[in-house]
Amino acid sequence: MSGSSPLLRTLAIETSCDETAVAVLDGDGRVEANELSSQIAVHAPYGGVVPELASREHLKALPMLVRQARDAVEADIELVAVTAGPGLVGALLVGVRFAAAYAWARDLPLVAVDHLHGHLVSPFLDLSGGTARPMPERVLALVASGGHSSWYLLVDGEAHRLGRTRDDAAGESFDKVARALELSYPGGPVVDRLARRGNAGVVSLPRPRIEGAPFDFSFSGLKSAVIRFIRQNDLGGGGESESPEVICDLMASFELAVVDQLLTPARALVEEHRPHIITASGGVAANTLLRERVQSLGDSLGVEVLLPPVELTTDNAAMIGRSGQLAHDRGALADPRRLDAHARRAWQPPGMRKLSVQDGAS
Ligand code: KG4
Ligand code: ZN
Predict the structure, then answer these.
(1) For residue 77, which of 47, 99, 52, 96 has the smallest C-alpha distance?
(2) Per-residue model confidence as pLDDT tens digits over 76-114
(3) Given ligand 1 and candidates 37, 38, 39, 174, which is best to mutate, with the most ligand atoms within 8 Å of its CB?
(4) How many CB atoms lie within 10 A of CB 295?
(5) From CA 199, how far away is CA 257, in angstroms rounded?
(6) pTM reported for the whole predicted model
(7) What stretches in the chain show pLDDT beneath 50?
(8) How far, in Å, is the centroid of ligand 1 from the Cα of 109?
(9) Which residues surround ligand 2, an ion (CB under 5 A)?
(10) Going by C-beta distance under 8 Å and a sequence separation of 6 or more, which residues neighbour residue 95?
């Protein structure tokens, strides 16, 4: 989908939530540097992200990460891309102001990136030195993260939302259930590990659907049923390695129900939109069962499946760089003196259609 001129070598900055990330991509979308400083240890004692702490940590980490990324690449930067929303506004502002100052001081073009569009392009990136894969005309894409769970149709790279969660995001439900068991934050990876030791057929859990909205889904009833089961059986508090069989079985059953909820609309969406590729991205796309199930869905429907490298499922700047390159190629440019952070989707980001303030955070 790129024009005939080569894309520009890009410095990308992502600070929307609890990861400070900086990347450099060459004009072919090859990831030349991919630096990340995770704040998980800072937020873990609180069981979730504390916005003020996130901003402070971004301020500390960002200049150092930019230096590291620049040191890893000899060639000149030609474009600056930064996540401008959605996310925590104070956290976003750190990246936005840094990127704007960087671009302004060097007279470089600047692009504002929608965090979700970054996730949407992440499956097309390679972390083993390859160029980014061109995006086919129609991509059916699931984004499932800590703040977001939706299906999109990407048409020539532009995202049209087809279905979404009506309450919690998938990752959020993993995080809340793990918290109820007093397991470590974020919950997704620990639930994934426990589920591998359990049997998903043991605990039966609800899979509520939304009447009249077949492509939307809900996780809050499922999450509440799991938390009720935890309280009724007085489970949790023993830590991950000490978790008894009943917790492993519960986590396997819960994980399967989440994956079912996410994938239930997929078959009908494929039939309706005839995509060239199906993708899944966002932190929950690191999940072992989700990856297996998306792959087998594609196999059974005869549609290619493309998943991001596990390292690029959670927040990173490489995806922001790629999204920024494609947006710039379509003519998007931000004014470094005016660019602001947008906590919610009340702005017109490049590459996203059907804007809605109900979309929520990243
Ligand atoms: O995309 P991401 O890094 O941040 C947001 O934009 O929200 O996603 C983080 C979310 C967390 O809720 C985390 O629990 C979940 O992704 N996650 C997983 C796994 N790894 C991370 N969920 C299920 N299984 C995993 N292996
Ligand atoms: Zn994200």
Answers:
(1) 99
(2) 999 999 999 999 999 999 999 999 999 999 999 999 999
(3) 174
(4) 14
(5) 13
(6) 0.93
(7) 1-4, 354-362
(8) 32
(9) 145, 315, 362
(10) 13, 14, 15, 16, 58, 62, 82, 83
